[in-house]
């Protein structure tokens, strides 16, 4: 058998080295510096515009990023709708009622105008989450880029991996640990419930016969409970503010609310009301100093954004965030033509 020439062997070695490097590339702040230098400005302007017409836009965007990263890593998989070969994660119970896809479409359209085929939907979610927090009064941080978009969804992974508002603290910790996030990340990231809304269906079980006890959830402040019962009299799909004090501001009030039994979801209040829990001290420290919360929130958002990204040559840059490119190849280069896209909600 003829042996390979030294030149071919060297070429193969460099090809494999390149492939290896590309596959395990790290995210970086400078990823789009040459290819889309104005990306941060474009996304920020688009997020601001969205918030001007919908005060909940920022809350919707960061929740999408969270649900993206917890299933197969931050790869835009949450945005894929049902299609041949795709069972959408949006059908999972944890994603029922999730909103904001049309906001992502609008941001993506703004980005595509200036940098066609360059920026992934997964990176857009990461950047838009930062802007959402910052525009609503929260901390800012330097976003890392270089994620690529998946060509698959994982509905089963969404069924098992997304956190539920009915879970115990131990169950929540386990779901965060499964994606490499620790208890501080859990408490800090839950602080995103300082803005946005929840439908009554997710917390009204706390009003009566909680866990079969015949009584309301004892960790829910009685006056707040009566107030929420009034809100929810309009129906299970009515939305209540997560933060009754400053509902649309990103501040530390989520934690001061927990200290007085005004966490909206059972899963929120457990961070403070589970007897002996290590999360109580963390809640108290965030409630005492907004700067401490903001510092940890920044770190935890980076940690969450780093969950198993698709980098290098894996995945693709989707043209339409709701569906994979029709001619997906190894490099995921070209997308589908105009007019093929899914209808925008
Ligand atoms: C710790 C486990 C968590 C649970 C059990 C949970 C659960 C929920 C539920 C049930 C809702 C209401 C959904 C609806 O009414 O349709 C919600 C909304 C929201 N979640 Fe979470 N969440 C968790 C963690 C997080 C994290 C880590 C973030 C972001 C970093 C986040 C951001 C939000 C935001 C901003 C909203 C409001 C969205 C809106 O107004 O449309 N949540 N969450």
From TrEMBL:
Record keywords, A-Z: Calcium, Disulfide bond, Glycoprotein, Heme, Hydrogen peroxide, Iron, Metal-binding, Oxidoreductase, Peroxidase, Secreted, Signal
Provide the residue positions that the database annotates as binding Ca(2+) 2: 194, 243, 246, 251
**UniProt-annotated binding residues for Ca(2+) 1:** 68, 71, 73, 75, 77, 89
Domain Plant heme peroxidase family profile residue range list: 26-325
Q: Which GO terms describe its cellular component?
A: extracellular region
**Location(s), subcellular:** Secreted
Instruction: List the cofactors.
Output: Ca(2+); heme b
Cofactor binding notes:
Binds 2 calcium ions per subunit. Binds 1 heme b (iron(II)-protoporphyrin IX) group per subunit.
Query: Which pairs of positions does the record mark as disulfide bonds?
Result: 36-115, 69-74, 121-321, 200-232
Top EC class, one word? oxidoreductase
Site annotation (Transition state stabilizer): which residues?
63
Q: Which reaction does it catalyse?
A: 2 a phenolic donor + H2O2 = 2 a phenolic radical donor + 2 H2O
Q: Does the keyword 4Fe-4S apply?
A: no
InterPro entries linked to this entry: Haem_peroxidase, Haem_peroxidase_sf, Peroxidase_pln, Peroxidases_AS, Peroxidases_heam-ligand_BS, Secretory_peroxidase
> Which residues are annotated as active site?
67 (proton acceptor)
The positions making up the signal sequence are: 1-25
Which biological process annotations from GO are given for this protein?
hydrogen peroxide catabolic process; response to oxidative stress
Q: What is the stated purpose of this protein?
A: Removal of H(2)O(2), oxidation of toxic reductants, biosynthesis and degradation of lignin, suberization, auxin catabolism, response to environmental stresses such as wounding, pathogen attack and oxidative stress. These functions might be dependent on each isozyme/isoform in each plant tissue.
Name the record gives this protein: Peroxidase
